[in-house]
Amino acid sequence: MTQPLHIDFVSDVVCPWCVVGLGGLETALDRLKAEGITAEIAFQPFELNPGMAPEGENIVEHIAGKYGSTPEQSAANRAMITERAAEAWPGFQMNMSADSRIWNTFDAHRLLHWAGETAGPERQKALKEALFRTHFTDGNNLTDAGVLTRAAEAAGLDRAEAGEVLASGRYADTVRAEQALWRSRGINSVPAVIVEGKYLISGGQPAAVFEEALRKIAAETAAAA
Known about the structure:
With 225 residues, the chain is of the alpha+beta class. Helices cover 56% and strands 12% of the residues.
């Protein structure tokens, strides 16, 4: 297949299942290269907690309030997701603990939009990965401009320009509109992987699931061309 598949990866940077999903998707795409199946990924915004205060919230308290989970259930869930992330994304270090915090991610999504619009899909993907590491590996505050601009720099982007984007409020309306668009299309949980604008793969799936689905979609797309 010569034409890359277009994939919209709708996710949040504090969503651990989105780490699992991206790892599985990337592994599947690596395997499919030999069959001539490639893809271009665009990262789309989704805030799990749009009303989160700037100071964030302890993860155990947050999960208890949102889902009714006990501290023991929360710990077991963290351990399970950490194991899944290690399988899906070799080398990714997920350091979630009872002291971890959930942060407001609106500014992170503004930076991701900036990266995609001005530097292209590869730099946007690099920033997405840097933000995942900033949160899950390093446990840093995603509302802190210095933290966000360091992630941008680590992704090969201009740190000063990233700071200007954050300070100016640029892309705020665009990100809100994009989030509303995906919700209007029925996306209420993430990760949601939309291929060619019409095929939905939901959740943090393993590589084999993505591989099988993308192979079928590529065949259907090629047949319809």
